[in-house]
Amino acid sequence: MLDNPMTPAPKPQPRFTQSTLTMAVILSLILGTVGGVVGGSLASGRFDSWFNRTFVKTSVASPSSGSSSALKVEEESATVDVVKKVQKSVVSIIITKDLSKVYNQSGLSPFDFFFGTGQQQPQSGTQEIGGGSGFILSSDGYIMTNRHVVDDAQADYTVLTNDAKSYPAKVIATDPVNDLAVLKIDAKDLPAIEFGNSDSLQIGQTVIAIGNALGEYRNTVTKGVVSGLARRITAGDGQSSETLENAIQTDAAINPGNSGGPLLNLAGQVIGVNVAVSQQGQLIGFAIPANQANSVYESVKTTGRIVRPYLGVRYVPITKSLQEENKLSVDYGVLIQRGTARDELAIIPGSPADKAGLQENDIILEINGVKLDTEHSLSGEIQKHKPGEVITLKVLSKGKEKTVSATLEEMK
């Protein structure tokens, strides 16, 4: 994996091996531009939005009576309050496109097999082909969603607010590292949502999802808990896949229509952006931490684009199994290793890593004294810094430890 991957993997089928992942789970990106969204909207003539998951942190004080029924009532009241507070800040993102660009030369939609409708659909004209969810970042119209919801340059995007008003949307920036995007609409006095601190999350906290389930049940509310933290996952849509790090796992129900929506705590703050769901299990969904999303938004507000630092290495995290398989002397850190394609070098030529003298098969053990393990990823630690900052790496090279300094640069 490149520390700042620019493109998803070319094959649709995620591969899970001991040498590539710390967690093997097949996921599905909640795409608004392919698969069920296109087929569903063409077959039914309605808007199919994608997965929108929201996680809620439980910070409910114990009632003085100690009664379990009183605690239940208090938590239910907190959930109702969150919904009332936040639902006006959750939006739908509608994707429209010229159908002549959707259908192939045979006259069939490439997604007909998914639904098996067997019905002849219109092949020209502009029509809704899918969508996703998002949430309002500012009163003057900044919106956050998933990158995969708005990654079709030939499509048009419209934001539909809770009061049924629609606004043409412009894609301001897409994140080359995480599945995030920032949109802008021409509006004023919008009900902006507040970011919380995703670093303070704890497993077992209550979470709430508010989303446009199945594209027709807007403001559907589901509730669950934070099931896991710092997950490293590979998510794909059947055409491409990408690796996401430090993801939040939850069991709050996720359905088509929820992609790009907020993950909330019981204070009504965003602590994650919903991005993927497992196809192998039940109630296993994932969200990008809010601190990463907030950093993206602040960068866009300040510079008009998403500024990302990068080191310039491809790597795999070291696990116990990888250590045994390759007879390594350590069971933590990351192994610098080239990709599967012939041109995927381990060290990017001219990168900060190249300039610092890092080599293929080196093991990066620490960054600025932080041990790289299941809770601290290389990508996550790098993203805490800015381009131009100098980081100190503890490296195991040819059996010997050494300290290396590298000056991070902006990802182009």
Q: Could you give the order of the helices and strands?
A: EHHEHEEEEEEEEEEEEHEEHEHEEHEEE
CATH topology label of the largest domain = Thrombin, subunit H
Total number of distinct structural domains:
2
Head-to-tail CA distance between termini: 17 Å
Question: Which oligomeric state applies?
Answer: single chain
CATH architectural group of the largest domain: Beta Barrel
- Which strand-content bin applies to the residues? 25-35%
Return residue spans where pLDDT drops below 50 for at least 5 consecutive residues. 4-28, 30-65, 105-120
Biggest sheet descriptor = 8 strands, mixed
Question: Rg from C-alpha positions?
Answer: 22 Å
Structural class, please?
alpha+beta
Instruction: Provide mean pLDDT, rounded.
Output: 78
* Strand runs, count: 22
CATH class of the largest domain: Mainly Beta
- Helix proportion: 10-25%
Notable traits:
alpha+beta, globular, Thrombin, subunit H, 22 strands, 15% helix, 7 helices, six-stranded antiparallel β-barrel, Pdz3 Domain, eight-stranded mixed beta sheet
